[in-house]
Amino acid sequence: MKKVMLTLMMVMGIIISAQAQKPNKEEKREQKREEIKAMKIGFITEKLKLTTDEASKFWPVYNEFHAKMEKLHEERKVNHKKLKKGVDSLTNTEAEKMIDQELVFEEKELALKKEYHTKFKSVLPVKKVALLYQAEHEFRREILKKAREQHHNQQGGKPQGPPAGKPGMDDEE
What we know:
Blueprint: H1 2-19, H2 25-48, H3 52-84, H4 92-123, H5 126-155
Helix pairs in contact: 1-2, 2-5, 3-4
């Protein structure tokens, strides 16, 4: 219970400090990322019911994993920016190279997941590792649901697409 309260206090601190300033667009984006990160920490800690000892071993490994995953995704963005121009603007050779690069990224991502799956099992019981994957999926769904609701409230209309949890609403990773 102390961990949950501490996490909630941390989230509230981030929210209060974010509201105390008039940030620019990039600062707002960074504040939002930090807010989501704090929410995710609380969500996962609660779902896994991490002990203090487990948390002290788990979070450094988890943070390392996500730092590497973010770096990989940043590299991948370069490839995706080229696609925004449209496939029709590419030569066959360029298109083939981009497809091959995407497959390489997917292989790297899978290798990273396998590596850290082993590391997670070294610091947590295997059932908690399974709960971790479930909690990450649930958290993504919650964030997407909140984003849709926020968009709906800003637009004043009906939300686009099927409601969360309905068939056809698979999450992108």
